[in-house]
Amino acid sequence: MSESLIEPVDPEQLAAAGESLVGRLSMDQLPRVKALLGSSGEAARALEAECHFRFGRDEMARLTLEGEVSTRIPMECQRCLEPVWLSLTTSFSLVIVDSEAAAEALPVEKDPLFRERRLIKLATVAEDELLVVMPQVARHPDVQECGSLARDDRLFVDEAVDAPTVSDQAPKQRPFQVLAGLKGEKGRRR
């Protein structure tokens, strides 16, 4: 069933009917994801995230929401500062809970989803799941795909850098050597 994923839904009703919801969310409907797109955010307005949600109950009769969210977004490569297109796909399995106590009672391998007034917002769930899989530092997979800024910078190129080796550097002072010397002096003062 394909529906608008913006309106809050009642997971109890959907689980009782064994419903699945399929739809698309625009980046305008995912403001926290859009904010991370930086200067590419305006170009991403036409982009969408494809979402699949399945409601049901698990073996313990707990209310569940399973699904997948996928999209392709531009982010700023942190090596060359040019756009890099990333494909994001995530699958999730959540247990819908009403309280902290219910969330704490879940097994470690189960993730809770808190609902308000018996309703959940699927756009928020999709956005949360995308934020989890977004890289903290976006960059092209290979430096050769980067713009000229990174390709011209010798630090990113797979060439030997003429950095001094450990044996070329001045000998390091051992930090506890100073303390040993002080201890020896203190013993001599008595």
Automatic annotation (TrEMBL):
Q: Which domain of life does this protein belong to?
A: Bacteria
The protein's matches in InterPro entries, at most eight in alphabetical order, are given as: YceD, YceD_bac
Signal peptide span per the entry?
A: none
Keyword annotations for this protein, in alphabetical order, are:
Ribosome biogenesis
Instruction: Provide an example Pfam family for this protein.
Output: YceD
What the protein does comes down to: Plays a role in synthesis, processing and/or stability of 23S rRNA.
Q: Which family does it belong to?
A: Belongs to the DUF177 domain family.
What is this protein's name? Answer: Large ribosomal RNA subunit accumulation protein YceD
Which organism is the protein's source?
Answer: Natronospira proteinivora
Q: What is the lineage of its organism?
A: Bacteria, Pseudomonadati, Pseudomonadota, Gammaproteobacteria, Natronospirales
